[in-house]
Amino acid sequence: MKRRVVVTGLGAVTPIGNTVEEFWSSVKEGKVGIGEITKFDTSDYKVKVAAEVKGFAAKEHMDFKAAKRMEPFSQYAVAAAIEAYEDAGLDMEKEDPFRAGVIVGSGIGSLQVVEREYEKILTKGPGRVNPLMVPLMISNMAAGNISIQLGLKGKCTNVVTACASGTNCIGDALRAIQYDDADIMLAGGTESCICPTGVAGFTSLTALSASQDPMRASIPFDKDRDGFVLGEGAGVVVLEELEHAKARGAKIYAEVTGYGATGDAYHITSPAEDGSGAAKAMELAMKEGGVSPRQVDYINAHGTGTHHNDLFETRAIKLAFGEAAKGVVINSTKSMIGHLLGAAGGVEFITCVKTIQDGFIHQTMGTKETDAECDLNYAIGAPVEREVNYVLTNSLGFGGHNATLLLQKYEG
């Protein structure tokens, strides 16, 4: 028998708020966190804007010495994890630490430390490279640092599936609890690669928007969309076995009832043109959760703002939902915070939880007019306020990774 899994804690570091409360308040205000890149000189770069985290000081969230041994992607992850842990009211002195684990992923890890240390090799020689270069750089260190900071001794892994990393991590954490590998899992994603290498690489791939207008740069499903905006941050949630949560009197935000993961087996950057891979992920999540397309109130789309993603994801929704596709409300949180890559799924999962709680589906900011084939309800022009019982959240990653989670209002 699969065990039931609920959400009991939320933590976020984003371009529009460094706590869940700040983030969600900004979402409700329709705040866009995109602006001119400040992390390096973009004079020679075609792309000038990104969605940077603002006002984050690691020492305010964790021990200063520990923070110095972490790159920003790990710092964001630890800060979000501590917020989620405290929000859940956890006390490891009252828990079996081997029944509490971490699955937090990053698509890239730290490009910045590679840039810094390679420059040292060129100018000062290989003997001057930081001894901590490798543990600072590698993507699993977000999960490792969370485990160390919070004393979580259970399953500790990370899934690296590019832009699907956060959603796959939460899906794997769901499975760990469902099948009794753990009672508590901290799960999600983190990313920080707004740096010369990151921006140059995605620009050469023609993936990034060249717009310099923050309100018209990340415009998912819009007929004038020209790419995504690079973002950064972290989203970490506490998943918990239902009876365990009830026994300790935890507040329950929502229940996670379905997970679907597929591979397109098609192309290294483009989703399958017919949307079949993403559609199957949605179908699998709905099947596991025992819901029909007509019962789903809202889809938090991957919605990157690239031509291919938005068109093919729309086709996927039509394929998975059939006639019900016209009735579901869809939006893209990336219209406010840009594309957080490996962290996107974590932050967007939190958006879904808060949407269920408040009955508030935010609008897709900046998007004005869709093209002919993007013809579904993308919450353009105004938010939608209604009761929300069932939600799907999609993440699609380079390499053809498709991941979908189904959340529902907790009914006891």
Account of the 3D structure:
This protein is α/β, with parallel strands linked by helices. It has a single domain, classed as Peroxisomal Thiolase, Chain A, domain 1 (3-Layer(aba) Sandwich). Helices cover 33% and strands 18% of the residues. The protein contains 13 helices and 14 strands. A hairpin with a 3-residue loop joins strand 13 (390-397) and strand 14 (401-408). The longest helix has 16 residues, at 72-87. It is globular and about 65 Å long. It starts with a strand and ends with a strand.
Describe the structure in brief.
With about 400 residues, the protein is an alpha/beta fold.
Instruction: Enter the CATH topology name.
Output: Peroxisomal Thiolase, Chain A, domain 1
Biggest sheet: strand arrangement: 5-4-6-7-1-8-14-13-9-10
Approximate shape: globular
Q: What portion of residues is helical?
A: 25-40%
CATH C-level label: Alpha Beta
DSSP helical segment count? 13
Return the string of H and E elements: EHEEHHEHHHEHEHEHEHEHEHHEEEE
Radius of gyration: 20 Å
- Looking at the overall shape, the CATH architecture is 3-Layer(aba) Sandwich
Give the structural class: alpha/beta
Instruction: Please provide the count of β strands.
Output: 14
Give the percentage of residues in beta strands: 15-25%
CATH superfamily: Thiolase/Chalcone synthase
Please give the largest β-sheet: 10 strands, mixed
Low-confidence residue ranges: none
Supply the number of structural domains. Answer: 1
Average pLDDT confidence is 97
Distance between the termini: 18 Å
